[in-house]
Amino acid sequence: MTDVIVPQIAGGEPAYAAAHEEHGPTGLMKWITTTDHKVIGLSYMITSIVLFYIAGLLALGIRVQLTTPHGTFISFQQYNELFTMHGSIMLYLFAGPFAFGGLANYIVPLQIGAPDMAFPRLNALSYWLYLGGSIMMLLTFGVAGGAADFGWVAYAPLSTTTYTPGVGADMWIMALVLTGFSAIFTGVNLITTIFYLRAPGMTMFRMPIFTWNMLVTGILILIAFPVLTAALVMLFADRHFGAKIYAVTGCHTVAGAVDVHACGSAVLWQNLFWFFGHPEVYILALPFFGIVTEIFPVFSRKPVFGYKGMVFATMAIAALSTGVWAHHMFTTGTVLLPFFSLMSLLIAVPTGIKFFNWIGTMWRGQLVYTTAMLMSIGFLFAFLMGGVTGVMLASPPIDFFVHTTYFVVAHFHQVLFGTAVFAGFAGVYYWYPKMFGRMLNERLGKLHFWLLFAGFWVTFIPMYVLGLSGMPRRVASYPTGLGWHVWNDVSTVGSFMIAVSFLVLLVNFWVSWRYPVPAGDNPWDAHTLEWFTTSPPPHHNYTHLPLIRSERPTWDYNHPDAPTIRYDHGRGGHPNGHGPYSGGNGAGPSGHGDGAPGAAEQVPAT
Amino acid sequence: MKIESRFLIGIGVFFGIIAISYWFTSYEDGGTLMLVGATTLGLVPGAYYFFWHRRFQGSKYFFWGRTDRAVGTRPEDRDDATIADGAGVVSSFPGSSIWPITLAAGAFVLLLAFVFGTWLALVGVSVILIALIGVTAESRRGGRY
Amino acid sequence: MAPAGGLLLAGCNLPTFGAHRAISSQGQDSLKLWQGFFITGAVVFVIVFALIAWAVLRYRRRSDAMPRQFQYHTLIEIFYTVIPIIIVLVLFGFTFVTENNVDALPAPKMAVTVTGFQWGWRFHYTTKNVTVIGVELQDPEMVLPQNETVRIYLESHDVIHGFYVPALDFSRYAQPGIVNKFTLNLHTLGTYRGQCTQFCGLYHSLMRFRVKVVTPAQFAAWVSTHHSTGPEASISNAEKTALARSTGRAAPTATTGGSGS
Q1: Which residue of C has its CA nearest to A253?
Q2: Are C140 and C209 within one domain?
Q3: How far A328 CA lies from chain B's nearest CA (Å)?
Q4: Which of A73, A395, A558 to substitute to test the interface with C, most C CBs within 10 Å?
Q5: By the 8 A CB rule, do C214 and C226 touch?
Q6: Which residue in chain C has the smallest CA separation from A260?
Q7: Arithmetic mean of pLDDT, A218-245
C-alpha cells in the first residue's frame, strides 16, 4: 500500500507521474483512513473552525452575563466554566491546531514541492489525537460537577483536588495531554518535511515565509509542549497520587507560618506553565504572520520586502519568546524583573521589523482589496495596537497595576484576535480556491470583514478603559456606581457584531457550496509553488514543477518580464550578480538573457 | 544540510547563552533546567545535520571520520538545481491506513482510564497493542524503497 | 525618545491616560512611567498607523502597470532595526529605575500582614494586636495612617489571590508558601476600593475590600478602640469548610464580623 515516487527526468515524463493513481477507500472511509496531508489538513481546519464557533458562543454567554452589574444570566459556577472553556478551546484547540495542524499541513508540502508530509501515518495519528482531545474537552460539560473552572492557565493550587475536586478538571488535563502529543507529532512532522522533502532548487532561503514561520513554529512546539505535558502529568499526580509538587494543603498553620518542607511550590506551576505558555503565544502568532506575509506580496503584485530580514525576525521572535515566560509572573514577587522585562521589551524589535517589512511590501505596489487582503490589513491595525500595549505590559511597574485586569484581556484579545481571527480567516479566504477549486463570494467576504473589523474595536477598546479603571478579569459580577456598566454594554454590542459577521461567513460557505464559481489554478496571480498545481491539487500534489530560482517560482514562471530586484538602495535597481536567476557557478540557465527563468527546463503547465 | 545544521546549532548556542546568563543572574533551577533542555534540543540534531553535511562534503575534520568520497550537495540545497537533478525515488509514502485512528482511539480510552477507573485501561492498552501490531505489519507488507 | 524622557520628569501635570491618580508615592512613580510609556506608545502607534494608512490608500491598484519588483533596501532596514532598539533600551532604563523605587523596602514605621483566603481578607496589624477580617459581601476595611512608611506582608491561606487597589496603581499576588513584602507611603485621605484580581474560585468576583487612609491621630484612635485583648482572631477550619461548601448559595453566611477584633 505504498506509492513510490519517481520525479521527472529532464524532458521526459511529468514529475511524479506514478503518484497520481488514486486508490483506496472512498466516502466516509476515505476521511477515516486517509494519510493524505490535504485531507488531514482539511479535517484539522474544519474541526478547529467548528470549535471556534463553539468557543465564540461561550464568549457571547460571558458578554451577556456582564451586560448588567450583578448579572444574573448565569450562575457564578457556570460563568467560571464558560470563561475557562472559552479560553481553553480558543487557545489549545482552535488557534494552534487551525494554523500548524490545518493550514501548515495543507500548504507547507505544496509550497516546497513535496508529495506529502514526511510521516503520513503519524500525521493522521496527530489529527485523531487532536480530535480525541477536543471531544474529551467538550464532554466535560456533561460530567458531574461540570467542566473545568480554574481558567485556561489552571493555576495551582486552585487546580488541585482540594479546591477543584471535579471529574471535569481531570478530563481537562487528559484532553490537553492528548492534544499536546498531537502538537508534538505535528511539529516533528513539519520540521522533517521541510528539511528533507523540498523540491530541487528550493533552498532554505527560497522557501516562502509561511513555510519558514511554520518551521520555526515547529521548533517552538518541540520546546514548549513537552513542558506543558510534563506539568500536566505532575498536576495529575498531585491530584490523585498524593504528590506534593504544587499542592500546599496541610503545610500551613492557622497562624500563617509555613512548613516549607511539607509544601509543594505553587509558583513552580506558573514557571512551568508559562515556559510553555509564552512560546505558545508565538506558536499562535508566527503561523499567522506567515499567512499575511503570503497575502501582502500577492495582492501588492510585488515580492515580499526584506525577505531575509523577515526570516531572521521570525527566528529572533521565537528565540526571545522562550526567555520571557516570567513576564506573566511579575506580580508574584518571585521573579527576576529586569531580565524578563528587557527580554520582553526586545521582542518588540523583530516584531517591528516585520511590521515595516509588511508596509514596505505594500509600498509602491498595486494593491488589490480582496477579502484576504482586507483581513490582512485588519490584522495589521489590530496587532499594532495589541503590540503597543504589549510593550507597556513588559514594564513591571505598569504591569503591577494592570495585571489580571481587563487591560490584559483587551491586550491579548487584540493580539490573538488579530492573528488567529483576522490573519487566520485571511488565510481561509486566500487558500479556499486552492483547496476546493471554487471561489468564495467577495461581496459577502467584504461584508464579513467590515462587520468583524467594526465589532472588533467596539468589543475590545472598552476593555482597555475598564481595565485601567480597575475592573479585574474573570469576575462574574461587578458593582454599580463605578462607571463600568456602560463600557461593558458597548463591549457586548461589539461581540454580537462579531457573531453576526461569522454568520455571514457561514452563508458564504453555503453559497460557494451551492453555487460554485470555478477558481482555476491561480486566481490571484499568486507567487508561490502551491498555485502552480491544479485546484484542488491531485494526489501527491504535482504533475509538473517549474524551475525554482527564487521564493516565488510560480510568479517567475508566469512573469518572465518582471524579475525580482534583490538589492536596491533607492538609486535605481542594480542587481549585483546575486539576482534570482543568476546561476551562481554558471550551471544555471544563464543563457536566457538578463534574468529570465529557463523556460526550457520545465514541462509546460497544463 | 548546511543551513539546517546552522539553524539548529544556532538554537542551541542561543539557549546556551540564555541558560548561562539566567543561571548566574537568578540561581533558579527550574527555569535553568528547561533552558538547558532547549539547548540540547538544538545542539543534538544540529550536530547530526552538521555531521551529515561534512560527510557529504567528504569531511576529514569532523568526528575524525575520513570518508571515501564527496557525495556533494543535495539538489534541494543547490541554487542551480533543476527539477531533473532530483530524479530518482523521493521517498515511500504509505497509502490509506485504518491504524492511526485505532491508535488514537486506544490512547483516548487509556487516558480516560486515569479519570474513570483502571478497568478502562485494559481496553485502551489492548486497542493500542492491536494498532501497533497492525501498523507494523502494514509497513512490512508495503514499502519498498 | 526625548519627549518621553522630558515628560517623565514633568510628571503629575499630565493626564493619567485612564489610570488612577495614585495615592501613594510608589504608585505615583508607576503612574509617571505609565504616562511616559503611553506617550511613547501613542507616538509609535500614530506613526505606524499613518504609514499603513498611507500605503493602503495611496497604492490602491489604478492600472495594469507592473510595479517595480524591489525587495531589499539595506539602509531603511537598518534604520528601522536600530531605532526600535534605542526606544526599547531607553524604556527599559526608565523601567529599571522606577521598578527599584516601587520595590524598595525602607525601614517601616508599622507593618500589616494581609492574608487572602477563599473569599475574603484578613488584615493583622502586627505590632498593634488588631485584626480585621471580612468575607464576601462583608468587605473588610484596612485602615492606614497618612504619610507613614507602612510595610505590607502579603500571603495566602489557600489558593493564589491578587491584592489590588486601583487607587494605589499597584497589585501583588498573595500566595501560599510565599510572603510578599512591599511598602506604601500614602498621601491622600479617603476610602478606596480594592479587589482580588487573581481568579481564586467560585466567589472570586465578590472578594473585595477597602483601604481607608486616615490621619495618624485618627489612626491611633482607631487602633485603641479595636485593640484586641483576647486570642488573635483567625479563620477556623470549620469556617473554611463552611465557605467551601457554600457553592451555589446566593449569599454565604459567614460567622466572622465585618471588622473589629
Answers
A1: C157
A2: yes
A3: 14
A4: A395
A5: no
A6: C177
A7: 90
Average pLDDT over every residue of A312-323: 90
Smallest Cβ distance to B84: which of A8, A132, A548? A8
> Both C115 and C237 in a single domain?
yes
State how far the Cα of B33 lies from the Cα of B13, in Å rounded to an integer: 15
Query: How far separated are the first and last CA of chain C, in Å rounded?
Result: 53
All cell numbers assigned to C156? 495566602
**In whole angstroms, what is the distance from residue A75 CA to residue B64 CA?**
70
Across the interface, whether the CB atoms of C158 and A163 are under 8 A apart is answered yes
Cell numbers 570518508: residue: B67
Contacts of C22 (CB under 8 A, 6+ apart): C28, C30, C31, C167, C168, C169, C170
- C99 and C128 part of one domain: no
With 0-12 CB in 10 A as exposed, 13-18 as middle and 19+ as buried, what is C105? Answer: exposed
Q: Residue B135: closest CA among chain A residues belongs to which residue?
A: A121
pTM of the model: 0.88
pLDDT given at position B56: 74
Contacts of A338 (CB under 8 A, 6+ apart): C92, C96, C99
- Homologous superfamily in CATH for domain A37-514: Cytochrome c oxidase-like, subunit I domain (1.20.210.10)
Same domain, C133 and C222: yes
Identify the pLDDT of residue B97: 87
C159 and C224 co-located in one domain = yes
**Length of chain A counted residue by residue:** 606
Q: What is the mean pLDDT of residues A519-545?
A: 89
Please choose, from the candidates B122, B126, B107, B5, the residue with its C-alpha nearest in 3D space to the C-alpha of residue B55.
B5
Asked if the C-beta of C92 comes within 8 angstroms of chain A's C-beta atoms, the answer is yes
* CA distance linking residue A328 with residue A396, whole number of Å: 10
Which residue is associated with the grid cell 500500500? Answer: A1
- Pairing between strand C190-196 and C180-185? unpaired
Widest CA span in chain B: 61
Do residue C81 and residue C207 come from a single domain?
no
d(CA A270, CA A459): 29
